[in-house]
Amino acid sequence: MDNVKSIGFIGLGVMGKSMAKNLMKKGFSVNAYTRTKSKAEDLIEEGCTWCESATEAAEKADVIITMLGFPSEVKEIYFGEEGLLNNAREGSILIDMSTSSPTLAKEIAEAADKHQMTALDAPVSGGDIGAREARLTIMVGGNEEAYNKALPVFQAMGTNVVLQGGPGMGQYTKMVNQIAIATNMIGVSEAISYADKAGLNPNLVLKSIGGGAAGSWSLSNLAPRMIAGDYEPGFYIKHFVKDMTIALESAEELGLDTPGLKLAKGMYEELVTRGFEDAGTQALIKLYVDQA
Amino acid sequence: MDNVKSIGFIGLGVMGKSMAKNLMKKGFSVNAYTRTKSKAEDLIEEGCTWCESATEAAEKADVIITMLGFPSEVKEIYFGEEGLLNNAREGSILIDMSTSSPTLAKEIAEAADKHQMTALDAPVSGGDIGAREARLTIMVGGNEEAYNKALPVFQAMGTNVVLQGGPGMGQYTKMVNQIAIATNMIGVSEAISYADKAGLNPNLVLKSIGGGAAGSWSLSNLAPRMIAGDYEPGFYIKHFVKDMTIALESAEELGLDTPGLKLAKGMYEELVTRGFEDAGTQALIKLYVDQA
């Protein structure tokens, strides 16, 4: 295969759309499909080729990127009758950039081999701002040769691109990321609610503790929102619960007991029960504020 | 009271000794007492005045600093018959820089008032390196006038000095710090042990996740030691358990349920049971590594 020129892009949510735009900016031709065509309108205006199905997007492309919500959707778009494995060209590189199950990523890679394709798993972090500014972290698993071919594609969307190992290793790395975040969110919430109960000025407390051993991205970026009562989503609780569900299943498959992750998942599920699924993850503080 | 010239310093452990040295460097005369005189030998060589008791150290000083291990020791040194409240000069400023109970700090401040003294609580973070390099964070609670008088003393030992409020507020702030650390240590340990179980190279994973939303001081500084199997103490598990015990009691007094802190405290107590009390806090990873 020569240099990648044509990309199929499936899934144009907040993240996917920004990523597709950045690919177009770098000169890739983008064949886009998403379930709700209206979501693609501005992308079509900017010159992408609209496709009526995932199959059509796949047929025209050297590299096919999927950016979907749930593992069940990933499974359908790869393994379904109308799916990529049955319809993409031989030699295609299929890249799932959704946050999805490591085990499913391995299954896709295996199936792709049988269809003379190559699959990479390449979930991202950096949020909507990282996607817009082409500053995503991209954690890649899969075949090294395919990774090298796809590297200019990744570099059009992100700044920190690392091949973490073979199939599934990108998804495993993303799970490591989510596991580290999950329990720390509890610590940040307990710290801020304790400060509040003690009669401290929590913002002044951050001046004392933010730069030291208690410091974290969440403490710097989300604690001020907790203090301000600002629950606008940077990262949705419903998506975090999905990720923690995958992470916990995966940890169990690996024979690892993770009490912190279990606690965090249970607390966030409680927030969903209370109607906070569309709030940002910093709304965890609600469970503490509303204890009294 | 004029400018502070003479300081009584009680408690010359790893932290206390470095702090006393920095006070001497800045021209304060230091009257030192600690239970084991041999610990003070190099300080005596450098020109501190050795005192045979806490009382003697207190009698000569404008400001008396205590840097002790446990709240029980703090209680004895302040309230005991030979203690500071019964023996320091009227007008003295008593500063407890130990990490201790916020409630005890309030009791000391109240008792000091009755003795025509002023007490400040001023615990620190920054560890042995921060103490040595006079770069401690100092979280102060108490009377503002006394704080202002003592400020040159604090500035001889630390760079981030903040008056957090009235009596006890320094200790409350330190507890906020420890609470934030406690649960994050679980997240870091679970992240690293999951990475390891998944067959990832954990150091390479840190390259992907260290600078983003999963990032924290503990992930940057302690995860590499976990990965290397290096359990040398930066901060002793036995001291962390002491701090979490104070924090949990304090949270309960405030009517706040802190499941993350409870989980962390239980896990660290399990490590003590397994003989790791003198290891660094990063040894929490042992509970995960040794699951199999």
Characterize this entry briefly.
The structure is a homodimer of 292-residue chains. Chain A is an alpha/beta fold. Chain A is 52% helix and 14% strand.
Write the topology of this structure.
The structure is a homodimer of 292-residue chains.
Chain A (H helix, E strand, L loop, with lengths): L5 E5 L3 H12 L3 E5 L7 H5 L3 E2 L3 H6 L3 E4 L4 H9 L4 H4 L5 E4 L5 H13 L3 E4 L2 E2 L1 H6 L3 E6 L2 H12 L2 E8 L3 H29 L4 H8 L7 H5 L1 H6 L8 H17 L5 H15 L11 H5 L3
Parallel strand pairs in A: 1-2, 1-4, 2-3, 4-5, 5-6, 8-9
Antiparallel strand pairs in A: 7-8
Question: Would you give an account of this structure?
Answer:
The structure is a homodimer of 292-residue chains. Chain A has two domains: 6-166, Rossmann fold; 172-289, N-(1-d-carboxylethyl)-l-norvaline Dehydrogenase, domain 2 (Orthogonal Bundle). Chain A is 52% helix and 14% strand. Chain A is elongated, with a radius of gyration of 20 Å. In chain A, the strands form two sheets. Chain A has a six-stranded parallel sheet with strand order 3-2-1-4-5-6. In chain A, strands 7-8-9 form a three-stranded mixed sheet. Chain A has helices at 14-25, 41-45, 54-59, 71-79, 84-87, 102-114, 127-132, 144-155, 169-197, 202-209, 217-221, 223-228, 237-253, 259-273, 285-289, and strands at 6-10, 29-33, 49-50, 63-66, 93-96, 118-121, 124-125, 136-141, 158-165. In chain A, helix 9 (169-197) crosses helix 14 (259-273). The model of chain A has no long low-confidence stretch (mean pLDDT 96). The first copy, chain A, is built from 15 helices and nine strands. Chain A has 292 residues and is α/β, with parallel strands linked by helices. At the A-B interface, strand 9, helix 9, helix 10, helix 11 and helix 13 of A face strand 9, helix 9, helix 10, helix 11 and helix 13 of B.
